[in-house]
User: Which sequence fits this backbone?
């Protein structure tokens, strides 16, 4: 018996050491992650992010909560990443928390598409719209040595043999990089089902494929490609928004004679079934956030275009987007 | 060289040194915890970049990255609970060594191997990054597919004594890898959106290794006499060093290029290193599966070298090849820095400080972890009921922290029962893990290659690298046949197999 106790005692020191090291390190981690105090209004809100840390929604959501916290517009935010099925899992959770007055969720066009491709019933139109925050234009990228000089060259080749033009994007089917070439195809008279779209796992692999000329055209937001565009290894045929981008010397699609405006966007939703005054309070909070210098700074450093729309106008926009995505995916025969 | 010395002098300022220490400790901690990886930690620390100098933030992140690659080995060896997918292989031999009272040696060879590989890797990074052109983007899906076929064929040679059991385990692994909607169509998701992204490899590995073993031990606790884990010596002896240094170098040779390749990753080189060491082990071959030090030294060197390799395309052309590198890129862009050839000209001080801090981080890892190895090893002296309770707690915590969902804990229990059943029926674990990791990637590259060629199968051997790899695969497959034609060579091979089989019978 004594032997066992003795062994346990010696083992215990090792365990205690392990515990101390872990606690110390986690405490250090804590210092980095949870800054700020319970100042400002003592209202504590939760912000749900529908993808992994480091992704687009994560950066937007965390930038917004950070601005609200440091400007003392509200108490501390509890930010949680709920990953799964390109945001469908998070969307389902938002709808399940019907009536929760302290919950917000960052989302965007990709989540709208994912709810369809994953056959989920938790549609964005079922939640309470709060505000659209930012938008990002898509660009048509080609490698420096590509034979395509203008969008017309691309369209001509596409019409001649739709499957021969290999188009890659950084999102899975239903995401912005996939919806954009499909809508573009429909706009120029190419059957979307004939489009050869190859899905890459984000901007990194897509850059690789473009630089190695494995694909003919890439469709993506341009922020991740600044370096390659600046040094000339990638060219932009056109951008998809209403106006040209300041940083990129490329025409819009409309200027190139194609009747299509397409933007990826991100915004904030609340669960369904919350009282009107809570919805108004959320909207007021985001309006205050939008007015801060810190938010304008965040927009600039991240290369996001300000696209602040709230309440009914945002709701109208969501309904339109929902229908448009449904139509596009329907034509493709995706569920 | 001057530039590097300048960088070194900047990296060892007290402030930057502090960031390096914090980064290395944090990295080790997240490497130890299954489920929380360096990518997530760096992402969560991104807001820090708003408050500190770019060089300090990059040093912190690099420390986390290197630390994370190393930290995963500790729990793999001691608790049979891999913290990261790249340290799964380490658990195979490392935990067997620990049970034989050689935990301190396993931890030491992992620490020193990581240091050696990290240092060589960083030297190669310094030498190659400024000059490397676009060669890393030349390889396309056909080449990656060929490389993965090679990895798969190579590991089937270590399927264990019974080929049939090995293939059953491999099939199970490939089936688990099918779960998800990666192809656009849901497969084996049973309509559950939580399964749409597939099953996290960390959950599977922790369940099969740790939970399966805890159940196995629990089932036999009363029937078997208490096995006391021998204390063993605290340090590596001459023999350990002699057996470790070559695997360290070979592991580095596998890890660095795979890290630098856009779709290489840290797992494949650990497989290849393990298989190679097993083949080259000579008279120690019989120790494989029972705690061979080569099987820890090689893969641990490989995963650290791949971390250094990853930074080559990141710094040279701004190309992130892993999740962690992608987040580091986001941080650099947050500072308005665009990695690429122009970064070396525009911000030489920053780049060289970062490179120098990698050396510092590596040295810190060794200094901090080597003296701890004998201390960690004493953890195993905890009585088994407490030890396994601790392991189960750790496993559940890890599975839960992957996505913070109870669903992953349910999966953990399910696969834990599978792990128990595999031990009961003598199925080897490695082929299953390899199937889970390589299966989906193999499919992705095949799909991409065929989509790019519009279904033309000949595209698969359209790249020179792919052709070379297929030649190697053919050689691997034909070599045993050639050996049989040479009289005298086949006997020991067969004998070893038979000994394996006999021993396995005895074990059951």
Assistant:
């Amino acid at each position: 018996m004594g032997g066992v106790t003795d062994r346990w005692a010696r083992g215990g020191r090792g365990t205690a050491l392990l515990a101390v090291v872990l606690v110390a390190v986690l405490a250090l981690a804590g210092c980095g992650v949870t800054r700020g105090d319970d100042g400002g209004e003592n209202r504590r809100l939760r912000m749900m992010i529908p993808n992994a840390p480091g992704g687009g929604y994560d950066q937007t959501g965390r930038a917004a909560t950070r601005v609200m916290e440091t400007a003392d517009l509200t108490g501390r935010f509890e930010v949680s990443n709920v990953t799964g099925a390109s945001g469908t899992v998070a969307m389902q959770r938002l709808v399940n928390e019907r009536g929760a007055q302290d919950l917000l969720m960052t989302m965007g066009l990709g989540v709208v598409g994912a709810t369809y491709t994953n056959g989920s019933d938790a549609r964005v139109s079922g939640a309470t719209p709060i505000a659209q925050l930012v938008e990002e234009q898509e660009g048509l990228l080609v490698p420096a040595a590509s034979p395509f000089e203008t969008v017309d060259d691309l369209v001509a080749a596409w019409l001649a043999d739709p499957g021969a033009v290999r188009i890659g994007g950084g999102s899975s089917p239903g995401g912005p990089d996939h919806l954009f070439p499909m809508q573009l195809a429909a706009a120029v008279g190419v059957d979307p089902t004939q489009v050869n779209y190859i899905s890459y796992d984000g901007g990194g692999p897509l850059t690789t494929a473009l630089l190695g000329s494995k694909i003919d055209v890439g469709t993506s937001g341009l922020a991740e490609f600044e370096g390659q565009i600046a040094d000339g290894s990638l060219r932009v045929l056109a951008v998809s928004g209403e106006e040209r981008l300041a940083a990129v010397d490329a025409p819009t699609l409309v200027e190139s004679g194609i009747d299509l405006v397409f933007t990826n966007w991100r915004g904030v939703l609340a669960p369904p079934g919350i009282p009107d005054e809570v919805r108004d309070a959320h909207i007021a909070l985001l309006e205050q956030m939008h007015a801060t210098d810190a938010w304008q700074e965040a927009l600039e450093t991240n290369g996001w275009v300000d696209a602040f729309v709230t309440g009914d106008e945002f709701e109208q926009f969501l309904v339109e987007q929902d229908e448009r995505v449904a139509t596009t995916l329907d034509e493709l025969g995706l569920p | 060289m001057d530039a590097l010395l300048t960088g070194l002098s900047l990296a060892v300022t007290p402030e930057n040194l502090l960031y390096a220490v914090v980064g290395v400790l944090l990295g080790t901690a997240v490497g130890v915890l299954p489920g929380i990886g360096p990518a997530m930690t760096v992402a969560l620390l991104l807001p820090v970049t708003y408050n500190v100098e770019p060089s300090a933030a990059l040093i912190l992140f690099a420390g986390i990255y290197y630390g994370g690659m190393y930290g995963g080995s500790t729990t793999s060896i001691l608790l049979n609970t891999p913290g990261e997918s790249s340290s799964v292989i380490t658990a195979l031999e490392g935990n067997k060594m620990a049970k034989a009272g050689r935990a301190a040696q396993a931890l030491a060879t992992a620490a020193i191997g990581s240091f050696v590989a990290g240092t060589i890797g960083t030297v190669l990074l310094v030498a190659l990054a400024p000059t490397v052109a676009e060669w890393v983007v030349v390889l396309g899906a056909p080449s990656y597919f060929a490389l993965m076929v090679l990895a798969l064929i190579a590991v089937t040679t270590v399927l264990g004594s019974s080929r049939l059991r090995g293939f059953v385990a491999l099939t199970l692994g490939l089936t688990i890898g099918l779960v998800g909607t990666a192809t656009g169509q849901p497969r084996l998701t049973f309509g559950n959106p939580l399964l749409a992204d597939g099953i996290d490899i960390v959950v599977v590995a922790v369940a099969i290794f740790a939970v399966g073993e805890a159940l196995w031990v629990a089932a036999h606790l009363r029937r078997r006499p208490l096995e006391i884990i021998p204390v063993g010596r605290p340090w590596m002896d001459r023999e350990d060093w002699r057996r470790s240094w070559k695997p360290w170098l070979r592991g580095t040779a596998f890890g660095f290029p795979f890290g630098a390749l856009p779709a290489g990753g840290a797992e494949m080189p650990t497989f290849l290193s393990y298989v190679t060491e097993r083949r080259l082990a000579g008279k120690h071959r019989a120790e494989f599966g029972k705690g061979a030090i080569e099987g820890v030294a090689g893969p641990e060197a490989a995963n650290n070298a791949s971390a250094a390799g990853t930074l080559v395309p990141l710094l040279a052309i701004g190309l992130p090849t892993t999740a962690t590198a992608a987040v580091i890129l986001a941080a650099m862009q947050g500072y308005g820095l665009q990695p690429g050839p122009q970064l070396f000209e525009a911000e030489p001080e920053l780049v060289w400080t970062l490179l120098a801090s990698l050396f510092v981080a590596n040295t810190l890892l060794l200094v901090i972890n080597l003296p701890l190895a004998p201390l960690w090893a004493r953890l195993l002296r905890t009585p088994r009921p407490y030890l396994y309770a601790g392991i189960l707690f750790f496993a559940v915590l890890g599975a839960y922290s992957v996505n913070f969902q109870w669903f992953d804990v349910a999966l953990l229990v399910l696969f834990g029962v599978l792990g128990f059943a595999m031990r009961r029926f003598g199925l080897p674990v490695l082929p299953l893990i390899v199937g889970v990791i390589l299966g989906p990637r193999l499919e992705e590259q095949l799909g991409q290659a065929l989509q790019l060629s519009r279904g033309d199968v000949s595209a698969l051997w359209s790249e020179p690298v792919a052709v070379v790899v297929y030649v190697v695969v053919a050689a691997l497959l034909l070599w045993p046949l050639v050996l049989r034609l040479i009289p005298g060579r086949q006997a020991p091979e067969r004998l070893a197999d038979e000994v394996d089989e006999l021993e396995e019978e005895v074990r059951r």
About this structure: Chain A touches chain B through 69 residues (CB under 8 Å). The two ends of chain A are 66 Å apart (CA to CA).
